[in-house]
Design a protein that fits this description.
It is a single chain. The protein has 2 domains: 203 residues, Alpha-lytic protease prodomain-like, CATH 1.20.1510.10; 89 residues, Alpha-Beta Plaits (2-Layer Sandwich). The longest helix is centred in the middle third of the chain and has 30 residues. It has a 3-stranded mixed beta sheet with strand order 1-2-3, covered by helices on one side. By secondary structure, the chain is mostly helical. A hairpin with a 2-residue loop joins strand 1 and strand 2. It is built from 9 helices and 3 strands. It is elongated, with a radius of gyration of 25 Å.
Amino acid sequence: MIPKTAPTLTPQRLMMVSVVVAAITIVLKTWAWHITGSVGLLSDAMESFVNLASAMFGLAMVTIAQRPADDDHPYGHHKAEYFSSGFEGILIIGAAMAIIWAAAHRLVDPQPLQQVGWGLALAVVSSALNGLLAWGMFKSAKIHRSVALEADARHLVTDVWTSVGVVVGIGAVALTGWLWLDALVAIGVALNILWQGAHLLWRASQGLMDKALEPDVLAEIQKALDVFAHPTIRFDHLTTRQSGQRRFVDMHMHMPASWTLGRAADARASVEQALMRAVPGLRATIQLLPTDVEAHLDDPLDAA
């Protein structure tokens, strides 16, 4: 059950905060790049533009995901969050390629840096803002099981590490005078961003393809079913999937054919309630079958 304090950390509110923080960090990092001329800080600023676009799209998708089921979408709109994760991955990959392009030119033609101290200070402040926001998003994503929030939080963490790398690189340039280090750091940052974008795309694709629930969640489901274990009652053909914040489980429940329909329905209701208590947000679909009847699921059309 979601705690009463959760409304202050709802996905919509945090995505709105993410939009504001992204706008602030764009100003700070662009200012830092302008006064220093560092291509490393330019790459950091470009990623903040990605943060802003991702947060705005994520806000739209989280809002759609909260809509109730309707005639056209009887299972709800929860998968909208996967579009947010995929869109963010595409933007990150695009930003990484642009950073590599800019850094490659600077690697060939290094330029001296100006006002390094102020530039580093602005980068550290923006990084701290992103770190605090990412912490709040991870916490809320766990409570609400929000894929969009987790994707944005992971991107913000990447942004923090990007800023750390840029700060270290610029500091090294100031200490050694090796101007090519600035471009090298930018390329390293871009490769890290590229990996993160690919990871987000992969996760979004898995969600859209109805990936099974995590092993620890499956263990909780099995534990709840074991309570009802009996020589006359058994469960089989258990399948699971996740759709954004929602989790689904389908199974067959076998029981004696001599039971009345009312008794069988009561037993099924008890199992459903136990499953929902064990796994918050779970929706269980249980088909009742006599003990000596087996379901045939090998439809030739399914294998085609």
